[in-house]
Write a structure and sequence with these properties.
mainly alpha, single chain, 85% helix, 41 residues
Amino acid sequence: EIAETLGISEGASKSQLSRARGILKEQVIRMESINYGTYGG
């Protein structure tokens, strides 16, 4: 459904989703490591 909406193949959509999840995960880990010292929790 996403691929159809974007006008791309299903494989390209899955690839982009996987890449986006990886980037998001890296950002969350980075934010957690920065905030860990700030809040002491």
